[in-house]
Design goal:
The protein is built from six helices and no strands. It is mainly α and 150 residues long. The chain has one domain: de novo design (two linked rop proteins) (Up-down Bundle). Helix 3 runs antiparallel to helix 4. The longest helix is centred in the middle third of the chain and has 26 residues. The chain is globular. The N and C termini lie far apart (55 Å). About 26% of the residues have low confidence.
Length: 150
């Protein structure tokens, strides 16, 4: 019978695979840099752009956690970094993005609850909560794709 730690590590590694595939970037470009320069009339919101990049980086870092070496504390630290990034983005984003910010926050709260209560939620609850964070985080990042960060 596999140990609880082995089950946990297996589930998290599976989740990391799901997270990586869900957070994959789109290498295609909808416009050329030259056309962006000629059609952009407003200066980019630097803080929003920095916060968007920080969120992308924190989600990527969550997918890069070495659970075997870092254990659940590594996952929890990565989740905290994503939460901090969402909080910063919430402050800099326009109200147009608030539904996505709120959904991501709610998913993070559910993940934090699942991580704190693995006895009743089990690994399945944690995996499900991570999938929700990835899904809502991806929706938030997608909503910010049109922000010009020149």
């Amino acid at each position: 019978m596999p140990s609880r730690a082995t089950t946990w590590i297996t589930a998290v590694m599976l989740t990391v695979g799901v997270v990586i595939s869900a957070c994959g970037g789109d290498d295609s470009s909808s416009s050329s840099p030259a056309s962006e320069a000629t059609t952009t009339t407003a200066a980019p919101d630097e803080q929003l752009c920095e916060d968007r990049e920080a969120l992308e980086d924190s989600i990527e870092a969550l997918t890069d956690v070495d659970v075997i070496a870092e254990g659940t504390s590594g996952v929890e630290e990565a989740v905290t970094n994503v939460q901090d990034s969402v909080q910063a983005l919430s402050s800099s984003a326009a109200e147009d993005f608030q539904p996505e910010v709120d959904a991501t926050r709610a998913a993070l709260e559910e993940l934090e609850t699942a991580l704190g209560d693995t006895e009743s939620a089990g690994v399945t609850g944690v995996v499900s909560a991570i999938e929700d964070v990835v899904s809502t985080g991806d929706a938030l990042l997608q909503s910010l794709q049109d922000v010009d960060c020149g």
